[in-house]
Amino acid sequence: MRNYSFSSSKEVIYYNTLFIITFDIIFGWFIFQNEFNLITNDSVNAFIFGLRKIFIGSLFTFFAVCSIKNTIFFLKLDPHAKLEINNEENYLLYINIVDGVKKEVKVDFTDIYLIQWNKARLDNLSYYFIFYKKNEVIKKIVVSNTLTTKLEKKIDKQIEIVKVEKLYFEEFPVTDY
Asked: Do 132 and 123 meet the contact criterion of CB atoms below 8 Å apart?
């Protein structure tokens, strides 16, 4: 059994955004370069090629804008968050500084009943909801991808995991303390 300790790291976000934008630029350049080399005297073909360029250009722009929006969104997340998973003593400890006050949640593995993985389709930017019961009240911990990836594999307990995919995130939820 391994124990894990994580603190916020924004490197995953930078790498994913850089990959999407680089892919957009290289693939877009390749497509437009090949289409500019096509010579045609037919006005219908020229019109269709023009529409294709507009469609492909707007599609790549959409991907880049969504990627940048997700990046800005995730850069605002929990810069002081820490997560500790102790598999020997069967607990998960989440520590964060909210409005200048240190908040922490310590949850026993037996209280955790569901992990929901929320993933953006355009990037590998995601966060986890860890649902648990405390005094018959359902609470959740929100763990972003900047803290850890594949959280369900790091906890030595069989916990139901639900995967939810979205195009991009509107707002980031907060942890119940």
From this structure: no
What is the DSSP pairing of strand 126-134 with strand 91-98? unpaired
φ/ψ of 149, rounded to 5, equals -115, 155
Q: What is the DSSP string of 66-85?
A: HHHHHHHHHHTS-TT-EEEE
Within the chain, how many helices (H) and strands (E) appear?
3, 8
Per residue in 72-122, pLDDT (tens digit) is 777 776 677 888 988 888 889 999 887 788 888 999 988 888 989 888 766
pTM of full prediction above 0.70: no
What CA–CA distances, in Å, run from 36 to 46, 62, 112, 120?
10, 22, 57, 34
